[in-house]
Each structure stands twice: as C-alpha cells, then as structure tokens.
Amino acid sequence: MKFIRLCIFISLCLPLAILADTYPTKPIKLIVPWAPGGATDQIGRMLGQALGKSMGTTVIVDNRAGAGGTIGTQAFVKEKPDGYTLLLATSSTNAAGPHLYSKLGFDPINDFTHVVLICSIPNVMVVPTKSSWFTLKDIIADSLKHPGQYSYGSAGVGGSQHLAGAEFKTVTHIDINHVPYKGSGPAAQDLIAGHLDMMIDTGSLGSIKAGLLRPIAVASDRRLIALPNTPTFKESGVNMTASAWYGLMLPAKTPLEIVEKLNNEINSILQKQEIKLKFEEMGAEIIGGTSSEFSKFARTEIVRYEKIVRESGAPSE
What we know:
D-Maltodextrin-Binding Protein, domain 2, 11 strands, six-stranded mixed β-sheet, three-stranded antiparallel β-sheet, 2 domains, alpha/beta, 44% helix
C-alpha cells in the first residue's frame, strides 16, 4: 500500500517538476494595457527584454490601450493559465479601477495570480518648456484667475495622472479640465506640442532630460535622485503625494511552479546594476519580493484606493 501511495505521489509531482524544468518552450507574451511611450510601456519593454534573455526565449510586448487599462486587462484574464501570457498590472487597473468602473470586466483579485511587485514611481508635475509657469504657485494663481481655461492630460480615466490631477484640483480648489488619452505617451506628446497645459506624470524624466518638458514639483515625500533640484509638492505648499505601482501577474490558476520560476527570475533581474540604474533614471523605487507579499499588498491597495478615488473627486463610469 505504501508503495502504491508513493507511486501516485510521484506520478502527480513529476509532471509539475518537468513543467518547471522545461518552461518556457516558446515565446512569452507580455500584455501592457497602455499605449507605447509611457512609464508602463517603458517598464514592460525593459523587463521583457531582460526576462527573455535570462529565460532563453522571446518576450513580446503587446500594447492594448484604452479605458484606463481595463481593455487590455479584460483580454488578459481570458488567456490560458499556462505561463505564456503575462500582464504588467498597475495601481490604476487593479486598485483604482474597481472604484471607477461599475462594469470593470474582471475581478481585481480572483482573476489573477500575483507574481511580483516590481516598483513604484511618484508623479511629477510637468509643463512645456515654453510655459510661463515655473512653480506650483504660478499654476495655482493663474488657474484661480482663469477658471476652466487650462487643461491637464492623463493616460486615461482612472490612471495615476488622472487621479493625481483630480486630487490637485480638490486640494487647491482650482478648475482645470481633464483630457484623457489611451496612454501617457500620447498625452505627453500633446503636452510637449503645447496642446495641453500641464500633466502630473510618472514617465516624463526622459522628456525632461531632453529639454522638452519642465519639472515643477514631485508628488512624493522626498525629492527624486534623478531630479534633485525639483521640490516636492509639500515643499511647494501643496499637501499631497501621488505615485503609481507596477507588478507582474499571470492568469488565475497558473501552476505554482511557473509562478515561482518567474518570481525568482524577476527578482534576480531587479538586482542587476544596469536595471537598477534604468529604474533610477525613471525616478522609480524597486520593490520585488514574494508572490504572496504582492497578493497581500494588492488586496490592501484596493481598500486604500477607495478613499483616494472618493477624495480625489474623480467621476465613476
């Protein structure tokens, strides 16, 4: 009887062991639910390239933008849980989304297998270099004098830029117009071109360094290493902080062996010096950790964002 039980145990475990040893055997798709050019896309392409190299395969970045990241996420949860479709989830889709959309199209916890929390990035208020604004006080004073005449862009309803802009309006009592896009990349392009007046963005450091955008203030508790001369919102007299987090997910019911393998790979990648420097250049704070830690964090964030969305004044759809 003991021998039979041992044989059954081995027969059950062996396929999983083989799966972990052979995975992956074909290209992996990484769904980025935002348009090319923004912070989410930059992170996705950077990690996709590194992950493909470390695992000996190709990671194909699939941008599926729209509706604050929900369109791409809805498509993702319908994929097979075989480890060959990943999602670069964000605080916008999996924490703010449930409080912004009455028909979200997915369960923000139960439709996902959490792999690893990658990083967080604080928002930065930016304006075109030709703007006459140099401080938050300039923006506030001008907006109070001319209510409804200025606009701010975002990656879409529910994105970190949208929520940060809505909170900025609430805290400062100004009237500025929200213009949603299908990603922060297109929004930043219009900002650079002068079609928008401002943006509180997470992925503008490249444009700042290129002299295309001017940083006004950082929505974090301390100044960014990449922008040492740019004050925080609090230093500028506005009591608010705003940031976005990014994490890797798999569909629900993905085998644990695949989850653990990807978690180990990503954690190793995050410790590489060249990757650390790239994240630092983006103003990002690397996090990493276990899949269970990410799962617990995601659950608490859904609760935390209920208050953020409510107090920001962002409308529900």
